[in-house]
Amino acid sequence: MGEQVNSMKKWTRFAPTPSGNIHLGNALNFFLIWAWAKSEQMSIALRVDDIDRSRFRLEYLDDIFASLDWLKLDYHSGPISSNDFLHNYSQNLRINQYRVYANGLFNAGFAYYCHCSRKNIEERFGTSCYQGFCRRENLKDGILRLNLEYCFSMKYLEQDAFQALMQNVGDLALIGRDNRPTYQLVSIVDDVQMGITHVMRGEDLLASTEVQKLLAKILNIVSFTKTIFRFHPLVRSPEGRKFSKSEGAFALKNLYLKAYHPVEFYHWASGILGVGVKCESAKELADSLPNDFFTSDFLQF
Q: What total number of domains does the chain contain?
């Protein structure tokens, strides 16, 4: 797993966050990435998104490696253990690189500083999507936010796209109140530096993807604008709720700590993906998917 990313090859990635235990929805996402890579002869990198330290726990980091091992999903580049990750791969080791991009956006007028708290935002706008209260305040510190209005005025966004982003994400933070870069900026920088060409995400990250494409366009990061994306439906609980890392009921840890065999997961995943037989391994399930399963931008199951 120590292979270096080769920009001439096709690369995708696992990108879990150590903010809770891996659940069945995360595991299905891992499998779909693995199966897509198998079908397209892609290499897989493991990129752990630990930039948000407020929710980071070492036990959650350990769980990522334990889950991938239990699922028997291999990858070609990235950390092989929690210790390896913390010393060689943590996003905290690259904070200054991310700030260079953030400062570039600020200096070019595409970002501004804001002093509004989460409570202020909810009270003023009735939503967590920030609507630009501090855009013209010319503040020198605070939360650094992307100025979607300026992006629109500079022709980086069409009217419909601008309105949709304002409604779904607002002027999102690039540097948080803790002076740390945020996921949206960090994700695009890492994908570019890792040579990622293909990305598989849940449908809940559609708006997030549009923001990252916008950032790539502003920063003239041509390689990211060529990234191929696939989105898949979210797996939900029997009550219809989206799986949450804050709820442990559907955590993979409940299976591997009780010595369940991963065949149980692949039986479940076979049903979710509409495969007519109960497959017993990642390879068997991947080989049982229809030939055109990954050809659409939005997977159907």
A: 2
